[in-house]
């Protein structure tokens, strides 16, 4: 059986004040990184953030397209699409919050 592989579409905001998974941006995920878009620093920051958020090794992620653009595609080896969606939803700033009233 072949190892699971997922392609993930991203919309990147480099140079943000804080890094994180923002939430959905159309059919992509919006991701903020603090690194500037210079010399591949923002790309590497995106891959490290995804690695930490999805709990997968950094070498399991490959930037497939969008090396010099805000819209990127990343291939994730060893993880299926359903698992990626669950983990990104859990890490997202837009996840549903419980209604807390005093």
How would you describe this protein?
- The protein is α+β, with helices and mostly antiparallel strands.
- The protein has a single domain (5-91), classed as YggU-like (Conserved Hypothetical Protein Mth637, Chain: A), CATH 3.30.1200.
- It has two helices and five strands.
- The chain has helices spanning 41-54, 81-91, and strands at 5-13, 20-25, 28-32, 61-65, 71-77.
- It has a five-stranded mixed β-sheet with strand order 2-3-1-5-4, covered by helices on one side.
- A hairpin with a 2-residue loop joins strand 2 and strand 3 (28-32).
- The protein starts with a strand and ends in an 11-residue tail after the last helix.
Topology readout:
Blueprint: E1 5-13, E2 20-25, E3 28-32, H1 41-54, E4 61-65, E5 71-77, H2 81-91
Parallel strand pairs: 1-3
Antiparallel strand pairs: 1-5, 2-3, 4-5
How many strand segments? 5
How far do the termini sit from each other?
A: 53 Å
* Mean pLDDT rating: 89
- Main beta sheet strand tally, sense and closure: 5 strands, mixed
Number of domains: 1
Number of helices: 2
If you compute it from the alpha carbons, what radius of gyration comes out, rounded to the nearest whole angstrom? Answer: 14 Å
Query: Order of strands across the widest beta sheet?
Result: 2-3-1-5-4
| H-E order | EEEHEEH
Give me the secondary-structure category.
alpha+beta
CATH class category label: Alpha Beta
Spatial shape: globular
Name the CATH superfamily assignment: YggU-like
- CATH architecture term: 2-Layer Sandwich
- The CATH topology name reads Conserved Hypothetical Protein Mth637, Chain: A
Q: What is the percent of helical residues?
A: 10-25%
Which ranges are low-confidence, i.e. pLDDT below 50, for 5 or more consecutive residues? Answer: 97-102
Strand content: 25-35%
């Amino acid at each position: 059986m072949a190892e699971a592989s997922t392609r993930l579409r991203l919309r990147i905001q480099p140079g943000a004040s804080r890094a994180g998974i923002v939430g959905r941006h159309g059919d992509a995920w919006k991701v903020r990184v603090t690194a500037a878009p210079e010399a591949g620093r923002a790309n590497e920051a995106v891959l490290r953030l995804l690695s930490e958020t999805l709990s997968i090794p950094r070498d399991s992620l490959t930037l497939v397209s969008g090396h010099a653009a805000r819209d990127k595609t990343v291939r994730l080896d060893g993880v299926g699409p359903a698992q990626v969606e669950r983990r990104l939803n859990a890490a997202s700033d837009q996840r549903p919050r419980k209604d807390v009233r005093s």
